[in-house]
Fold this protein.
Amino acid sequence: MSVSTRAKLNIVTVLGGLLLLALYFPYLWFGVTPFASDKEYSDAEIAVLLEGTDLPDYYAMPLPERTPEELAKQKEDFTWCRFCHTLEQGGHNRVGPNLYRIFGQPAGVADHFPYSDSFIAKARNEKWVWTPENMAAFIADPHVVFPGNRMRYPPMLGYEMSLERDANIIEYLLRETR
Amino acid sequence: MTEQLAPGQQDRVATLLGWAIFITFFVMFFNIINLPRTPLGQREGMQLWHDSLGWVVGLLCLVRLYWFAQGPKPSPPEGMPEDSFAYSRAILFMLVLVFAAEFLIGIFYAWGEGRNVNFFGAVFPQLVETSEPLRITTGYPHSALAFYYLMLFTIWFVLGWWQNRKYGAGWRRLFPGEKV
């Protein structure tokens, strides 16, 4: 087969260009990066980040009694969060960080999770701690609360956000991350 | 190999491999679509299918890559210039290469997250230590290459449509079979 140099160049350009575009897509679509962070937070570092805060142990507080239907609804409302976050102790970071015992923690301390610089800057400057109230503010509008952060939320077109849904998500998180 | 093939035809091995890869990948595609749409913690069964079919597609593609190098070379259908035919062959080659790469990267991704790789219930043990950097640096291209083969599918069919219109190359050649 005798293929012209021009055709060969075109093929390399088109297929190479598409490959470069494809390599950008996971970041564009899911907000993920190809590099892990080597940062691990010690208890001492977390204690420093929590200095000056006086927060209750959210996991020692009793949760409201719920009917099986209400619990099922909370689980359903949390479904989309479950695509990106693990909740159990020792669970992997996925597209988003592991959320085990998230309440009462400073923001941005999941080991090895590659937080965006803007997320870490704001978290440290404002000493942001995950209280249920802060979490509610965050998931109501994550890109206003943490400008430049990479969480893709709402997760899809047509996803209906509401205060009731957010409250269900937060209570589900409190139940499942203790 | 010097086997002489009629214009627009490919040999029996390439035809069989083409069908096998097409059918297995077609089945796997539904799994690929649904796996990320399934919440974490409910993916075990789907993951087993993903791993198992990934092995089949991956190994078939490695054989097909060998056959690209060692098998007889097809020539363009009647009336189609060599340059235009080269585009089709390059896309096909790249598709097979990407599937093979997905297979190899996928194995390291599974090991990175501390998971044994399954082949229809038979466990291929973890040979590399669980590691977050490995999981992330393999997970990213595993996802990116999936976008890439969707792009390749698209230009494969767009180019095929155009070649049919311009050279009367036919539609059958866009699917597995003897026609290329």
The mean pLDDT of chain B is 93. Chain B has four helices and two strands.
